Amino acid sequence: MTYTILHGLMYPFLFLSMYFQIFLLTTFFENKKKIKHEEKQKSEVYPTVTIAVPCWNEEKTLSATLDSLLELDYPTDKLSIVVVDDGSTDKTLAIAKVYEFKNPNQITVITKENGGKHTAVNLALANSKSDLFGCLDADSFVAPNALRSIVYYLNVDATVMAVVPCIHIRSPKTFVQRIQAIEYLINIFFRKTYGELDAIQVAPGPFSIFRREVFEKIGVYRKAHNTEDFEITLRMHKAHLKIMNSHKALVYTIGPATFKGFFYQRLRWARGFLENALDYRDLFFKKEYGNFGMFMLPLAFLFVFYGLYAAAFIIYGIFSQLTTSFTRFMVVGFHPHLPTLDFFYFNTNVMSFVTMVMFSMFLLALYVGNTLSDDKQEFYKNFAAYFFVYPFFVPLFLGRAVIDTFFKRRNEWVLQDTKK
Amino acid sequence: MIDTKKYIFTFVITSAIFATAFFTSTFFSNKRIESVKSIQDNIAIDILSSETQFSLLGEVPCSNVGESSLSPELSTLGDKLSRTEADRGTEDKDVIYLKKYYSLLQIKDYLLSKKLVAKCGVAKKPIFIIYFYSNQGDCPDCEKEGYVLTRLKEIYPDLRVYSFDYNLDLTAIDSMKTIYRVKSSLPALVIEDKTYIGFKTVEELEKLLPDTLKVATTTTTVSKKVSIKQTPPKVIITGTTTVATTTKTAD
After folding, report:
1. Can you tell me the distance from the alpha carbon of A233 to that of B9, in angstroms, rounded to the nearest whole number?
2. Of residues A15, A290, A348, nearest to B18 (C-beta)
């Protein structure tokens, strides 16, 4: 009986998931010409830009981050970099000072007591006067064309208020980083199509660029469940401020190297998503918030729970299969057989057909993500790691995030940088 | 701002894919049922043919009654039927119909074997186990007993296992239950006309099986080895079906 209900619920889930996939693929192919056209355009107008680099004990990566910013293909007199040392206890400040000394016209260093990322970014914002403002986490690095690609979108359409980049995992080495490499690759496709639908879910920490008037209209960053970038995105949607994606603006970020780090990072994100989505629940199912309010945000919220359910369903299936094999083993011992090739025994139920179609569409989305980016990956190398491990990993942090949110557990401890 | 047409278009496409999946799945499921039905029909013809042979037996010597009358396909059919049942559920009308048909074929096969023994003596005596199970969740040991019997058939290919769903609404099965005094406590096994209640392991069942079966199986192995060497076997123990068959092959 339990199984019948579990099984029955799987069909609406599969239908919704497939609907979502087709919706995104349709959107992409509908806009393909426009996207291709954008790729060839270059902006010759250079508004002034300030990039804030908030740091808290980032001595290992800060130099490379600042180097990448200095190498940006952008007029130096139009680009200022503000390094905000958020009370670091390592050599972060010293490193920043050296860069400031060498590039006095471009780099400014501010130091303050530790107060969290949003306080650091807000301080940089308060100290800037530029037309555009963005932030680059000190564990991320930009490609030289990144800023120009982003600025193009802001120049051609005055209604675009922020532009988010295309993010890759920087030289994935560990198993966990390889999983993320694939995850980020598929996100390139998602972010592009979300942008076309005016439904970008988050303007991520690494190198999202905003017009100054965004902050004038809706205010600065706020403390928001350790996911300030998600909160400000929701606030922008609420104020009907448009966000686009520039898929040619390459940004590289260091992914957590261990499962533990990965778990806590995702737990922080998932918890932040749930809490902020609940705070902004008045966006749900309101026509005035377009595709984001009517479809994407409620679906993302629903998928948290459906994801948990699907995981339970799959784990239940695997568990009962294992129990059967174990019982058989206990009764008659181990006598392996070659699998039969008789077509009679092939699985031809609705679920396996639907899953096959969905898997093909997933591969298509992954392929599209890879073609969109200028940094093509040999994704098949890391695909097995992603495919066999990621689905079992997701329910762990989702489940924990749901429980923590439900019981209103304090999770200040995740404030610590999860990437270390 | 919201492109309603796209939402509808996506709905139509998604529904079409689901509908295709549904129809394809139904198509293959029906194909399976047809395939099981056709195997059953073949077996029914086999059995009818054997019965006809028996009616003529007064005029035909025992040696002319072929092995084929005891349909080896019955076992494959059983496997396919279990798979169909797992796919479509125990409540499925087609599944119930096929199971009834299958049960009747098993009983017929069983009776035919008995007749053969009566007419032609021990030379054609098959060894069989009659097995009563339930898959309504009231027989936790039935799953295990199923594994045991499958394994036993692998060890002794000449063994015939006739399985009957205790809860199947079929008067012929009711009669079998009455004859072998099988009550609702399951699993129940009938070996050499004796009824055993409760779970039995492979070893326990081996002890209950007549020795002729074990000899037959051992001999099969021996004669197969011989046939590889291209020297015709000068076999050996008469009185088991396997020896006869294998010797023929070797020749």
Report:
1. 29
2. A15
d(CA B39, CA B165): 20
Of the candidates A290, A327, A328, the beta carbon closest to that of B1 is on: A290
Q: What is the DSSP string of A263-315?
A: HHHHHHHHHHHHHHHHHTGGGTT-GGGHHIIIIIHHHHHHHHHHHHHHHHHHH
Lowest mean pLDDT among A158-162, A250-254, B219-223: B219-223
ipTM of the shown complex: 0.88
Share of chain B above pLDDT 70, in %: 75
Q: What is the mean pLDDT of residues B95-120?
A: 84
Predicted TM-score (pTM) of this structure: 0.83
Specify the pLDDT at position A288.
Answer: 93
Residue to test with chain B: of A241, A344, A345, A351, most B Cβ within 10 A: A344
Among candidate residues A173, A168, A193, the one with its CA nearest the CA of residue A377: A168
Size of the A and B interface in Cβ pairs below 8 Å: 73
Question: In the block, which residue shows the tokens 């898997």?
Answer: A359
pLDDT of residue B243 exceeding 50, the answer is: no
Are A155 and A164 spatial neighbours (Cβ–Cβ below 8 Å)? no
A295 shares contact with chain B (CB less than 8 Å): yes
CB A257 within 8 A of CB A171: no
Instruction: List, in order of start, the domains of chain A with CATH numbers.
Output: 42-173+196-257 (3.90.550.10)
Which residue in the set B10, B18, B25 is minimally distant from A26, CB to CB?
B10
Q: Which residue has the higher pLDDT, A7 or B212?
A: A7
Is A364 at the interface with chain B, CB within 8 A?
A: no
Provide the shortest C-alpha distance from residue B112 to chain A (in Å). Answer: 29
Confidence grade of residue A296 (pLDDT, cut at 50, 70, 90): very high
For the domain made up of B4-209, the CATH class stated in words is alpha beta
Would you list the domain boundaries of chain B?
A: 4-209, 210-251
Query: Taking a contact as any Cβ pair under 8 Å apart, which residues of chain A between 187 and 206 contact chain B?
Result: 198
Burial status of residue B155 (CB atoms within 10 A of its CB: 0-12, 13-18, 19 or more): middle
Asked if A349's CB is within 8 angstroms of B25's CB, the reply is yes
What is the rounded CA–CA span in Å between residue A380 and residue A373? 16
* Per-residue pLDDT tens digits for A301-334: 999 999 899 888 888 888 988 998 898 888 888 8
